[in-house]
Amino acid sequence: PSKNPGYRERLGARYFGAREMDARALRRVLVQHADGSTSRADIPMYEATRDARYDPLLREGDIIIVPHREVGAPTIAVLGAVQRPGVFDYVEGDKLTDLVRMGFGLDNARQITQAELIRAGGETVQLDVDQLRRIGPAKGASLRAAGSGSGEDITLRAGDRLMVYAVPTRVEGGSAVVDGEVLNPGTYPITPGTTTLTELVRMAGGFTAEAWPGLAELYRRQTGVDGFALDQDRERNRNFEKSNLVYEDTLYWAIGSRVREGQVAVDFHRLFVKGDGTANVTLRDGDILLVPRNTGTVYVYGQVQSGGFVPWREGMDFDDFIARAGGFGESADDDRAAVIKGNTRAWVHPDDAVIEPGDMIYVPHEPLVRLSTTTDILAVAAAIVGGLAGVAGLVISVTR
After folding, report:
1. HEC string for 111-126
2. Which terminus of the chain has a lower count of CB atoms within 10 Å, N or C?
């Protein structure tokens, strides 16, 4: 298998076994002994049975040859509700019990409904599930088709597929976590898509006296369509592949993609401070709510005279905080000052911001050169080139 498997390869490992794309023919490993004799090792069968016949002892001077798996080589497979689904090389003389063992047996944690052997040519053989369950790692067990009186094992053909079907697992319940400034932090049962954020807070006993719920944060699992954790690198590449971003946009997009953390968009100030129930949201399994402590301060920094933590009081506005920080510095660009929200890190214009404890205020330095567009950059570059050309012309005329 590759060291950096692609998405299809990872999905294949889940449904068809880790060796679906393996280039090695591990059931046909050849051991050449110094006396000229040979032995064959069958790694999947040895893993399944621990039978020493599939793992020959080595002698001094032996040579081990692991052949390449040929494209189109005959295979057999055991798929569905088994412990280790897999596609394996077909070896003459394989039995159905061997295939069950290579799949490490049925997954008894699931509700299995039926099993069938689908044979090359379209023939389907219904199998006895109870007998399949009894097949262990030891050799010698027999297997018969459902309704058959024969106890003979079934000899496999190239292309055979053993399919084991089970009732799909659907988990209706779930759980969510609330931590921080609530009376009883912990994990609570929820009904995904039904239980709301406010109900979770009530289950945790409500907020403490030190809580500042307006800056709470809600995080959700980031999963792909397969239900597993999202591959962030693959997601970034796929999103960027067909984008229409111009050069200036790509840096901001890349930063935004790298800090994608699964935060859920909730107006906590409107929900918890103003009590507006229309801002409520339903929860999903695995959600995590973090409720911060009221810090009682706002951090003011950048081009101000005395930056740092400024005590927060109800009713204070942007100008009040700037004044408490000593006012704007000489190089401040006050038109671009912003309030940075403590939970979302959103940059908000001071006129539109509700400043809360834990927020930050940043005052940037005025630009040394205002290059807001590509046209500005080209204009400056043209001016520089024109100036250099003038200087060069002057030098040439003087030297003449």
Report:
1. CEEEEEEECCCCCEEE
2. C
CA distance 269 to 342: 12
For the record, the structure tokens of 337 come out as 């000052």
> pTM higher than 0.70, yes or no?
no
CA distance 376 to 352: 30
Which residue is it, tokens 């999905």?
Answer: 11
| Of residues 279 and 171, more confidently modeled | 279
pLDDT at 183: 95
pLDDT digits (tens, 9 = 90+) for 222-232: 877 666 677 77
Measured distance CA(338)–CA(335) in Å, rounded: 9
CB 44 within 8 A of CB 102: yes
The alpha carbon of residue 124 and the mean position of all alpha carbons in its chain are separated, in whole angstroms, by: 39
Report the mean per-residue pLDDT for the chain.
Answer: 84
Could you give the angle at which helices 232-241 and 247-258 cross, rounded to 10 degrees? 160
Q: Per mean pLDDT, which range of 19-28, 45-54, 155-164, 200-209 is the poorest? A: 19-28
- Beta strands 75-80 and 86-89 are antiparallel
Contact 72, 58 (CB under 8 A): no
Task: Look at strands 124-127 and 112-118 and give their pairing.
Answer: antiparallel
Tokens of 105: 């047996």
